[in-house]
Amino acid sequence: MGNRISFATIKPYIETSLVTFQQSPISGEEMNHRPLSFYAFGPFRINVTERLLQHGDELVPISPKVFDTLLILVENHGHVVEKRELMDQLWPDTFVEESSLTQNISLLRRALTNGETDRHYIETIPKRGYRFIGEVNQINESPDQALTEISLTSDRPSRDQSLSPEHHDDSMSLAPSHGTREPREPRERSRTNLYLAAIALCVLVAVIAFGYRLKQRAPTAGLAGKSIAVLPFKTIGTSGESELLGLGMADALILRLSRLDELTVLPTGSVFRFTDPDKDAIAIGKQLGVDAVLDGTVQRQGDSVRVTAQLIRLSDGKTVWSAKYDEIQNNIFVLQDSISEQLASSLIPEISASTKKTLWVKSTANAEAYQAYLMGVNFWNRRTKDNLSKGISYLEQAVAKDPNFGQAHAILADCYFLSGTDEYKARPLDEALARAEASANRALQIDDNIAEAHTVKANIYMNRRQPDEAAAEFRRAIELNPTYSVAHLRYAYFLMFALRLDDGVSHMRRAQQLDPASPVPNAALGSILLTARQIDESIKYSQRALELEPNLMAARMNLAEAYVAKGMFQEGIPELEKLSHADDEYLIMQKAYAYAAAGRRDEALKMTNALQKLVGEKGAPYSYACIYGALGDKDKAFEWLEKIDINRVMLANLKYDLQLDSLRQDPRFTDFLRRHQLEYLLDGE
After folding, report:
1. Of 115, 441, 450, 519, which one has the fewest beta carbons inside 10 Å?
2. Are strands 304-313 and 234-236 parallel, antiparallel or unpaired?
3. Cβ-contact 611, 589 below 8 angstroms
4. Residue 201 near residue 143, CB atoms below 8 Å
5. Are residue 123 and residue 250 in the same domain, yes or no?
6. Is the pTM of this model over 0.85?
7. How many helices and strands, by DSSP H and E, does the chain display?
8. Residue 94 belongs to some domain of the structure
9. What is the CATH number for 85?
10. Are 489 and 508 in contact (CB under 8 A)?
C-alpha cells in the first residue's frame, strides 16, 4: 500500500491541524444531527461526506476528480455508466477529451490495486463506458459510531467495549481518580461525549488532509502534473554521428517518462532540433512552453561514459534535481534506465510499483542497432520525402541487427505508412500499407504496449474503411501514452471524418499543446480550425507553422485558404502563387477556386483546364463542383456534384467544407442529400 497514509504518520501534525479546525468550528449539536454516509466494498470504505477513500485504517490519496469518478461508478454499481455521461458529470459545461476520462480510470484502478489482491472493481464496456462490479454496501452512521471505527489510538477498545459502562476508560475523566466517583448527569455526559467525538472526528479529517498535503510536497520537485522537455544531452569531446549519444539519452528518457500519467513529456520531435552546444536551456524551455527542462551532458573517455543531468524549474530558474553517473560504454542502456527512474522518483513522490513498471520499455542491448535506430528517428522527425527514405533505411538496419527491437519496428511501421500517403508518395499505397502492417504487428508481438504501433494500426484500419477497429486502436494508443501527439493528431482527423468535428478539434489542440515547437501539429490545427470555421485562429496556427518551417506546403495552403475564406484575396492568392508544384492536383484546384471566388474568371478557367489535363475530364468532380459554384455557374456545379463518390471523406466535405457554401442555400443541395439519404448532414453537430 505504498501510496496510502497510515494514521501513525500524521500524529506530529495534530497541533497544526487544530488551529485550522478552530478557525471554522462546528458545534457538537450540529455534528450530532449530521449523518455520515459511507459506501463499503471489499477492504475499501468511501466517506461521502468528508470525501475520503480508506483501505482499512489507511487513507488512499486520490485527487478530487478521481474520487468523483469512483463515487459515480459506485453509486451506479452493477450498471454501465456511459462515457459521455461520466464526462458530463465530472466536467460540467466544459469540453474535455476522452483521454482525460481514460486517465482518471487508470489512476482509479491503480488506487484500488494493492498487494493483497489482484481483484478488479471496474469493468470496461467496449465502445460504451464503465461498470463497477464489486459488491457495495451503504452505511449511515452518526459521528460517535464512526469514531469507534476510526481512532488515533492503537490500543482502542472494541466497539462493544466502548459502549459498555463496565469497560469505560477513566483516563480522560476530569473527576479525581481517588475516592468515590460522583455520577454525572446522564444528559450532560452524553452531550459532552458527543461534542468531544465531533471535535476529534473533525480534527482527524483535518490531520489526514494536512498530512497528505505535506507528504505530497517533495522537497525537490513540486512538478507532478506539469510538463517537461528533455533536451538532447550535450556531448563533450565528440563530434559527428557520435553526438547521437546525447540524442539517444534524451530519446530514451522521453520514451520512459512519457508513460507516466502524472507528467506531460514533450515528444522527441519537439526537442531533436535543439542540439546547439551553446543552447540556453531556460530560453528553450520558455519557447516550448513547458514548466521544466531536463538538461545534461554526455562525455566519453575511452570506454567510459560520464553523464550529468539537471532539472531546471522555469518559474524561478532553480535546479530542483541533479545527478552524475559514470558507466562503461556497453552499459549505456542501464545508465538511461537509472536516470529515468531517479528523475521520475524525484518528480513524483511515492511512485507505486505499478507506475515504476510503466517506465520500463523494451529496447535493445545491441549498440549498433540502437545507433541506427537513433538515426532513423532523427530523419523520421524531419518529415520530408528524402528524409523519410533515409529514416526507413536506418530503421531497417536497426531491426536487421536486432529483430526483437520493438520500438524500431514501430517507428519503421510509421515511416512505411507515411511513404504511401499523398504528401510523400514515395511508394504505392497498397505496398506501403502492407509493409506498415507487417512492421506494426511485429512491434506489438514484441511489446503490446507500444503506442506508436497501435497508432499505425489505426491508420491502416482507416484506409481499409474499418472505423470501429480504427477507433479502438487510436484509443488504445492514447491510453498507453496520453502525451503521444501523433496519436491525438491522427485521431482528430478520424473524428472529423466521423462527423465529430468538435471532438476532433479538441484532440488536435491537445496534439499541438504536446508538441508546440513542431510545424506539423501547428499546421494540422490550422487546417481543422479552418474546417470548424474558426478562421482567425486557423490563420494564427498556420503562420506559426510557417515560422517553424517556411517550406511546409500544407501550412501555406491552409493559410491561403483561410485568407480566401475571409475574402482577403490580395493576401491569399499570393500565398498560393508562392507554391510552384505544377503537378499537384490539390494546389491547382485551390488556385482555380481562389481565382473564381475573387472574380478572376479567366484565370479560374485556365486553372480548371490545367486540372482536367492532369486528372482527366472526370477525375475531380468534387473540385469542379466547388470551382463552378464559386464562379456562379450553379447548374454546372450540381452536374459535377452528382458524379462524386460518396465516402467518409466526402461526407465530411459535404457537411463542413466552406467552399460548398455557394451551393448550400440552393434547394437542389437539400434535394441531393435527401436522394442519397444524407439528410442528417443538415443537422448541427
Report:
1. 115
2. unpaired
3. yes
4. yes
5. no
6. no
7. 32, 15
8. yes
9. 1.10.10.10
10. yes
